[in-house]
C-alpha cells in the first residue's frame, strides 16, 4: 500500500485554517483502501518538537500533498523552515528510495489565483532537490471566501472547479508516473467584481481591528515611516 503524506502549513494558531480544510477535502477523496494517509500539521510539529517523527514519515512517502496560504507572495516562514530542515534530514540520510510525487494546494486572499505562481516555483524547486516529481499546483484565489460564501449562487462554479481539482489529484495518484504538469487555477466567478470583493475584505479587517480594541483609523497608521 502506498503512503500519502498530507501536510498542512498554516501559521494560524486558534483561527480556522482554510489550508487545513482544503487538505481535508482533498484527503477525503483519496481511496483509503488503496493508500495509507498520514496528516502532518507543520505548526504542531514545530511547537511540540516532533520534527524528527515528521521527517521519518516523509522519508517513507510515495506522495506528498502540501497545502498552505500565500504569505508575502510566497511560502509561510514555518513551511520554509520545515522544508529546509527536511532537506537537511534528506541529505544526511543519503536520500530516500521511493520516487515521490509532490502536489501543492495554495490559497491566497486575493481574487487572482495567478499570484500563487511564485510559491509553486519554490515547491517545484524543493521537489527537484529531494529527487521527487512535481505533478502540479492547485492555485486558489480568494481562498477564505470559498468557504465563507460557499452557498452563495456566484460561488457555485468555483466550488465545482475545486471539487473537480481534488478529484484530478485523487485520480493521478493511481498512475506510476506524472500524468499532468499544468497547474489548475481557481478564482472567483467574473460576475463577482473585484471592487466588491475588496470592499468586503476591507470590512473584515475593520471587524478584526475592533475585536482587538482598535479603531478603523488605526489600520492606516504608519509607525515605521
UniProtKB/TrEMBL annotation:
Xref: SUPFAM superfamilies? Flavoproteins
Q: Name one GO molecular function term.
A: oxidoreductase activity
Q: Which residues form the NADPH-dependent FMN reductase-like domain?
A: 3-83
Please provide an example of a Pfam family that matches this protein in its UniProt record: FMN_red
Highest taxon listed in the record's lineage: Bacteria
Q: What is this protein called?
A: Flavodoxin-like fold
